[in-house]
Structure formats: C-alpha cells, structure tokens
Amino acid sequence: MEEKLELIATQTLPYNEDLYILIDFLNRTLKEKKVIFGVSQRNDQMVVSIYEI
After folding, report:
1. What are phi and psi of 16, to 5 degrees?
2. What's the confidence (pLDDT) of residue 1?
3. How far apart are CA 1 and CA 8, in angstroms?
4. What does the pLDDT look like over 1-50, one tens digit per residue?
C-alpha cells in the first residue's frame, strides 16, 4: 500500500549544517505520530518541511 504525504508547513532558515541532525532526531522520535520532516538546501538557505502520512 502506497502512503501519501500531505505537506503541512514549510519554513526557510539561514544555512546551518546542524539542521540535518535535528531533522534526523525529529524523524526518529516522531515516526509513530505519522509525521515526517524534510530539509533541503536552496543556495544559502535551508527549507524545512513537515509532512503528515
């Protein structure tokens, strides 16, 4: 069965290499709550996205 992701919110922040560590922590901690966090880099900015399964 394929799970669909629904985008809940996004936030753009200044680049910070430690943000990947935070996103990994959140995903491991909240995976049972059916929430997934993503992070992408756009130039000198980071975009954090929150999805609901």
Report:
1. -150, 115
2. 57
3. 22
4. 567 999 999 999 999 999 999 999 999 999 899 999 999 999 999 999 99
The three-point CA angle 14-41-34 to 5° equals 100
pTM of the model: 0.85
CB 16 within 8 A of CB 53: no
Long-range contacts of 17-21, Cβ-Cβ distance < 8 Å, separation of 24 or more: 19/46, 19/48
At residue 51, the 3 state secondary structure works out as: strand
E strands, the chain, where?
6-14, 35-42, 45-52
